[in-house]
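Protocol step 4 of 6: structure prediction from sequence.
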Amino acid sequence: MHVIFESRGRKEDRELELEFRRIAANDGASGPGRLDFGLFDFQPVFVPKAANSVGLQLADLTARPIALSHLRPDQPNRAFEIVRPKIRGLAQFP
């Protein structure tokens, strides 16, 4: 299963890939309910922003409002209120 990431440069991509593979290999106590990520063969794919992928555009529009809803739960977040009804559930990773 491919997981698409927007490329941010060689160093950042390498750091993200290492952390991604650590989580996918079930190393540590990350993930809600300690899900078994080993059931799938996750493969990270790094795509340049110039690819203009619809999925990456959607992630750009939703990731920040979702993250801010967790990082600053008391702060008003109109963007998240728009996104919230369109998503099923949220998993918070450390």
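Step 5 (inspection) to follow. The longest strand covers residues 2-6.
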